[in-house]
């Protein structure tokens, strides 16, 4: 049977191990969130996802809709979004094969928060522009 002093001395060790495990778990969660936000904040991600909001599109349609995106960058963006489960790639058996991209449920769920960010940016764009002008006009140092 354990004495009272044994349980008291054991408790901090158990608590410390639990806290260390909990901190590591929180750090890993933060790292994952940071990585996901990096993908979402990519230059082409939200543009591509916005083009898919009304339904599936083929690669060429996406490329035309996302003006300025290179074929390589569009390919990389689509692969990353597919890997993250934000869109699905469907290959139709035809000659030549027809490939379409569509948002998944998770991808569709991102549209409302992305639209809110866009509305915020639109509402504050002139203030930000003015602030940048003032900052850039300051003497160096």
The number of helical runs is: 5
Strand tally: 3
Please state the CA-atom Rg, rounded to the nearest Å: 24 Å
Helix content: 55-70%
What kind of oligomer do you see?
single chain
**Integer average pLDDT:** 88
Question: Which H/E pattern describes the elements?
Answer: HHEHHEEH
In spatial order, strands of the major sheet run 1-3-2
Pick out the low-confidence regions. 1-11
Approximate shape: flat
Structural class: mainly alpha
**How can the largest sheet be summarized?**
3 strands, antiparallel
Query: Approximately how much beta-strand content do the residues carry?
Result: 5-15%
Distance between the termini: 70 Å
Task: Report what the structure shows.
- The chain is mostly helical and 141 residues long.
- 69% of the residues lie in helices and 10% in strands.
- A three-stranded antiparallel sheet has the order 1-3-2.
- The N terminus is likely disordered.
How would you concisely characterize the structure shown here?
With 141 residues, the protein is mainly α.
Draw up the topology in text:
Layout: H1 4-40, H2 45-51, E1 57-58, H3 59-65, H4 71-83, E2 87-92, E3 98-103, H5 105-137
Antiparallel strand pairs: 1-3, 2-3
Quick tags:
3 strands; three-stranded antiparallel sheet; disordered N terminus; 5 helices; 141 residues; 69% helix; mainly alpha; flat
């Amino acid at each position: 049977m354990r004495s009272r002093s044994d349980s008291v001395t054991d408790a901090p060790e158990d608590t410390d191990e639990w806290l260390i495990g909990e901190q590591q778990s929180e750090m890993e969660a933060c790292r994952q969130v940071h990585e996901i936000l990096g993908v979402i904040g990519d230059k082409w991600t939200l543009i591509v996802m916005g083009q898919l909001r009304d339904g599936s599109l083929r690669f060429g349609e996406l490329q035309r809709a996302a003006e300025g995106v290179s074929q390589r960058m569009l390919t990389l963006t689509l692969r990353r979004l597919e890997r993250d489960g934000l869109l699905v790639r469907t290959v139709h058996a035809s000659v030549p094969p027809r490939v379409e991209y569509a948002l998944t449920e998770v991808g569709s769920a991102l549209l409302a928060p992305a639209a809110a960010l866009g509305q915020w940016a639109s509402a504050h764009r002139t203030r930000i522009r003015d602030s940048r002008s003032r900052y850039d006009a300051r003497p160096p140092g």
